[in-house]
Amino acid sequence: xxxxxxxxxxxxxxxxxxxxxxxxxxxxxxxxxxxxxxxxxxxxxxxxxxxxxxxxxxxxxxxxxxxxxxxxxxxxxxxxxxxxxxxxxxxxxxxxxxxxxxxxxxxxxxxxxxxxxxxxxxxxxxxxxxxxxxxxxxxxxxxxxxxxxxxxxxxxxxxxxxxxxxxxxxxxxxxxxxxxxxxxxxxxxxxxxxxxxxxxxxxxxxxxxxxxxxxxxxxxxxxxxxxxxxxxxxxxxxxxxxxxxxxxxxxxxxxxxxxxxxxxxxxxxxxxxxxxxxxxxxxxxxxxxxxxxxxxxxxxxxxxxxxxxxxxxxxxxxxxxxxxxxxxxxxxxxxxxxxxxxxxxxxxxxxxxxxxxxxxxxxxxxxxxxxxxxxxxxxxxxxxxxxxxxxxxxxxxxxxxxxxxxxxxxxxxxxxxxxxxxxxxxxxxxxxxxxxxxxxxxxxxxxxxxxxxxxxxxxxxxxxxxxxxxxxxxxxxxxxxxxxxxxxxxxxxxxxxxxxxxxxxxxxxxxxxxxxxxxxxxxxxxxxxxxxxxxxxxxxxxxxxxxxxxxxxxxxxxx
Length: 559
Fold this sequence. Notes:
Blueprint (H helix, E strand, L loop, with lengths): L86 E6 L16 H10 L4 E3 L5 E3 L2 E6 L5 E6 L13 H12 L8 H4 L8 E5 L2 E5 L7 H6 L25 E7 L3 E6 L12 E6 L3 H9 L5 E2 L16 E16 L9 H9 L3 H7 L5 E3 L22 H10 L6 E8 L5 H11 L5 E8 L1 H8 L5 E7 L5 H7 L13 H12 L3 H18 L2 E2 L2 E10 L2 E2 L2 E2 L4 E2 L4 E2 L1
Parallel strand pairs: 1-10, 1-11, 14-15
Antiparallel strand pairs: 2-3, 4-5, 5-7, 6-7, 8-9, 9-10, 12-16, 12-17, 12-18, 13-18, 19-22, 20-21
Helix pairs in contact: 6-8, 7-9, 12-13
């Protein structure tokens, strides 16, 4: 959902070595994808939610959050010579009757998947956080990072046969910058851009003159699940006659139930093999997996680790795993007591036995971390940073804050996101001996993202791994797209301003680490673990490219 994703934004996410960043390229020449997948021109981060986004960014941003073109890493199956034909059946757990086909406000894994099946963005970031072309073929930025010139791909057609031009880009940007549309990308762009700085010298060029420097703007667009291009003038996102430029065309849409799409034979990229896609929403995780076990579905979105054993060892079904795909996030509104007291927040973090959570909630399938949204082992992860666990100190802090007999609190969760409830229950037990008594307030898939997530003082989300500098505008700034904690730290803002003004790669890494080290001390975000993820696919499904937050059906074919 929301959350940008990890859009948000994680959607980053080699897998554990995916963070050798080329901060940006001045010019990108498009490479045609090949069967071996050397290029990933459509890798999208969905930090949670929009997730995330995505969050994910969310922002926040999901495994089935996007379609890509031959990713540079992930999972590729090979079962012979690819052939055209057949309909891929998907069973998705994270869907809602309030799902929308507006990319800026799509909230669930289901909505994100269909959005990215029918639309395309200007650019995307690959698993190394390098920007790859999509509807834009190249771009340049000036020396002080205040002007970006974007060159568009020519010959692209909308599903109705009309031409894609700079007029469509200007319209899309105007929607991003209009707060009335509620686009999840607004918080990433509005501090740097207004429509007075947007121009189109011709049908294939767009120029962005920024209000202040942003040296990672193109990565921000590439990593944001809300960055899909909308046709000029479109205001109806109900699914009727909705057009995009993507590899599939929508033919049926029933929010919270399912949808259908057929191949776009006029797609600007390589030809697509599948005749179509049929998706069904099955919120119950066991029932969702059963659909794959029984042969009623060909592939699922993510399944909880507690169900992995049901897939392992089978000949007809394959369990595909992804290392350190996402971090679980516990967010606390710092405007509301007792979370407005840093002693309470510090106590919560110190009381969390993160290794125990990996062992119990993740069954060993994950890594403990220290409240930064960067996977340990990444070149962006602060050197030497380790989580601290001290229940005695946690109790002392609670007593000092006025809770000598312990703290009672409520945490909003949902079981529609695979593994979230397991992580919540493990945390509930992990902090109990420190005197923190947690009541889990479980919401249905239809209500969590509107009435639990960002609507209650304490709630859960997740961040798919994302390009680390993007996380600040997503979650840690006063103008953040997803202000989980409703808190701002001037010290963090100062470091991030310097980060966005420099184009030196090594300095960007240093400043990113410095800013996250400061943010982990001042923000009410508990990020205790990164979890591995897995999905189930039929052995007859070939050519699916999976990585940390994306699935690519453009080269998928059925044996």
